[in-house]
Amino acid sequence: MRLIDGSIRRPVTVFMTTLGVVLFGLVAASRLSVDLLPDISYPSLTVRTDLPDAAPGDVEQFVTRPVEEGVGVVPGLVRLHSVSRPGQSEVTLEFATGTRMDLASLAVREKLDLVSLPREARRPAVLRFDPSLDPIMRLRLSGGGNLLGLRRIAEHTVKADLEGAPGVAAVKVVGGEEQEISVDVDAHRLSAVGLTLADVSTRLAEENINLAGGSLTEGQSEYLIRATNQFLSPEEIGRVILASRPEGVVRLADVASVGRGAKDRDVVARLDGREAVEISIYKEGDANTVAVARAVKRRIQRLPLPAAMKMVTVADQSRYIDSAIRDVTDAAWLGGLLAVLVLFAFLRQLGTTIIVALSIPVSVLATFIIMYRLGLSLNLMSLGGLALAVGNLVDASIVVLESIFKKREEGLDARRAAGEGTAIVAMAVTASTLTSVAVFFPLVFVEGLAGQLFRDQALTISFSHLVSLAVALTLVPTLYALGARGGHPAGAAAGAPATTPGPQGRWRRILGWATFAVLALPRLLTRGARSTGRRARPWVDRLLIPFDVGYGALVRVYPGLLRRALARRGRVLGLATALFVLTVVVGLVLPRNLFPSFTQGEFHFNVRLPEGAALKVTDAALDRLARVVSGDPRVKFVTTSAGQTDLAAFAGSAREANRGQVAVVLKDAGDRRGEEQVAARLREAMDQVPGLSYEFERPALLSFKNPVEVEIYAYDLDSLRTLAEAVAQRVTRVRGVEDVQSSMRLGDPEVQIAFDRDRLAAMDLDPATASRLVRSAIQGEAATQYSDLDRKLDVRVRASEAQRSVVAELANLDVGRTAGRAVSLGAVADVRVARGPAEIRRIAQQRAAVVSANLKGRDLSAVAQDIQAALDGMAVPPGAKVTLAGQNRELGESFGSLRFAILLAVFLVYLVMASQFESLLHPFVIMFTLPMALVGVVATLLLTGTTLSVMVLIGMVVMAGIVVNNGIVLIDYTKRLRARGLSKVDALIEAGQVRMRPILMTTLTTVLGLVPMAIGVGEGAALRAPLAITLIGGMMSSTLLTLVVLPVVYATLDRKP
């Protein structure tokens, strides 16, 4: 081939190109962004609409249903579901994979413009789910005295400084206490002087003013005119005159108490039992998580915090990313080292081993260049792809080198042997590489998260394999020819003195010495390696005696074994068929999960107390739970958050005082047993709290539905609640299920005010005005702002605490005046206490409830089967429906998509081989390596206890392109031998003997290169290990069976003698 001959003739060009690839690869590697996972697009939109003070039923009727009807016809919509909560509607639209979300968002906004909503409803907000919405770091600031000071330092010192860090999008602060000026009005005394709360708010806003009045010119001077009438102290606020009466003026202090106070708290955050302030850092969408976290940490070290205050990092994505990336990198290095050691065990020549081993770093660095140009990041999947490929990158070079050795044994010199030996196997190694790459094209058709997740991995494996092919066809023969050749590496002229005088002669001398250095380096390296190898050879031979004994026995036994197999073809094929059938039967009953579970050294429980529980009750309950495990030696720290979390506040969710979170961080991130035991202690403590429900979660790397979800459909809420309770009871009885939750819950106790329109009309009042006055009395209004040095404090006017904290007192609140007399709420309305639903869910525009649960000790497929069996025996009323959903539905969709990808990959592999062999029969023979590989996959999964998951199926896709390579090499050489005149049986035996060594070398380098990943040590290892285990099992069984079964299949199907 011209490429091979040209490379051997132009070694300087080859070396300079390689050097350039190495240099630019190092530069590209230093500039690649680092992240945990690839850039994943979730094709969903959420329409959030607020309807203040509305019950869930009203929100559903007046907001949710109109919005659903409006946006339900948007193109590309796959699924529509909603939740109506007190005062808020959320409608979620899920689109087909590949939908352009910018256009979908525009279409949704256009439909929303046509929807008619109540006047009180706020404008709908269209939100797009973005994984970067999660904070990259969470800090907790504790100590230092009062909570007001803690919050002030967090807001004005910590937040102000960290927001300036490169890549930081926002810093959110929750917890502690925020100061305001409280104006607690005695409603009875205010009514006695003929005023309302609205009058108080209006007067305060009018009195607190600082207004520019233009300018005045007098003579040579110009004066600015400014009215300075802002409040200077709370006492001055109390002296404000509200009204003048014949008996005197009415000041605010006469009817209200004025002073500094704290706002109503939404969140109580604690760290190891002490109240704290939580600070969450959000990065910009395209920022490097690790770089941003490092910049934040540098600024934290420089913060001028009081000595009594302590800042603790309770969550840090960069730590996990750093550790996970480091572990993958270590696995790749160790895998590459093991592959090189296998090469040396076979070759016993250090110089030759180095030549082949160069394929690994050159291919990886070249891949970094392509990744940089395509905008890919260094993440678990892209680096995992390189770690998977590292053992394969030497395969083509091994086959080329074996062919060169064969030519050297025939008496050719190094240069001719390098050229002819490489040319003979060039088509075979090209076909082998193309089959390895072709299997990734079907991933284009894998929909959903799996397709996006493995795109980076597919690209890195493909790029590295293609580069390794180029290295095998150019660099390897060039290095061999140069390293084994005699004479001066650069020829006679390279070292001869220059005869050209002047500057031109000096440049030629410099160029000559540079050329000499480049060409001499490989020879010096190989000579040095040979010299080192000769001195170490006795020691190495002793170490490798077990290997030599085993390999020698295999070499002696194999020809006879193959001859007997060829003589008993029917028996061999029958045994192989029986083994494959048994494999299929076992494979069908393998346990299945969507993705493997893995620990990150931290977990949390989302806790819900009975509806109506006050924030202080929730905080006390969470604090008691935290103390249960805070003294455990395996626990690093425990944090609690009662009420609205910072993420909920950032997303605009409503406050729920009865909800909270207990988060535990372990000292050892990989201690899975310790995590299970600590979580079990917490579960036991929570089970003893009446009315408390909880849900276990780990920090989510990916967005998944709950493992178990049962959807119940019915229009009537009572029927829906009854069905949901029945389903929850049945799900609870299924083995392997825990944390069972139902979305059908009674809401908070609510005071319902039913106005009598006739009585209101008689008093010349209306429901809207009366409702606003009730809200002003209870919730209060920020009438104006008080300047306190560099801060602005709200001045909140509302009824006194005694009058707004007792239900019976609400009837005495004034809601207006008529004929000079105050009108109480009880005179125009009935006040009663009742409970409604906490939320109303709708799926596909039907009312629905969801019962969810987590798994414990069993796989998803087995639990789903048991749940389905339990549901089949339920009596469902007419018009109602019960459906099993959750990850089980995603599992079916992902497995179906990946099964199609595997079949398409097999077809593409066949196309590539048929094109190479110009035959339909020989590729068909080689395809028999695939069922033989499946035997090893199933056996390995059983032995290691690995469940069948998306990762395993992706491994099968990759395996389809790799395991055929040995068959290609074997059948290709068999064809060449038959072309020389050997009989079919003799050609098969000769090909098996000659190609056994390269086949074993390529298999062992691949398998040992995957061992570090398969062992599953380090962060995120559970995500990588199943893929490596799949490939190891498939490679081992396919290789062993290929050496025996494949020749038998060839001999049976090829009718030529």
Identify the CATH architecture of the domain at 546-598 and 887-1057: Up-down Bundle
Query: Which percent band covers the strand fraction?
Result: 15-25%
Major sheet, described briefly? Answer: 9 strands, antiparallel
- Structural class determined from secondary elements: alpha+beta
Radius of gyration: 38 Å
Report the total helices. 40
Principal-axes geometry comes out as elongated
- Please tell me the overall pLDDT: 81
Q: Which fold name corresponds to the CATH topology of the domain at 546-598 and 887-1057?
A: Multidrug efflux transporter AcrB transmembrane fold
Number of strands: 30
If you had to describe this structure to a student in words, what would you say it looks like?
InterPro entries: AcrB_DN_DC_subdom, Acrflvin-R. GO terms for molecular function: xenobiotic transmembrane transporter activity. This is Efflux RND transporter permease subunit. This protein has 1057 residues and is of the alpha+beta class. Among the domains are: 44-129, Multidrug efflux transporter AcrB pore domain (Alpha-Beta Plaits, 2-Layer Sandwich); 180-211 and 225-262 and 749-777 and 784-837, Multidrug efflux transporter AcrB TolC docking domain, DN and DC subdomains; 546-598 and 887-1057, Multidrug efflux transporter AcrB transmembrane domain (Multidrug efflux transporter AcrB transmembrane fold), CATH 1.20.1640; 601-698, Alpha-Beta Plaits (2-Layer Sandwich). Helices cover 55% and strands 20% of the residues. The protein is built from 40 helices and 30 strands. Strands 1, 2, 3, 4, 20, 21, 28, 29 and 30 form a nine-stranded antiparallel beta sheet that branches. Helix 11 packs across helix 12, helix 15 runs antiparallel to helix 16 (414-438) and helix 33 (887-917) runs parallel beside helix 36 (950-962).
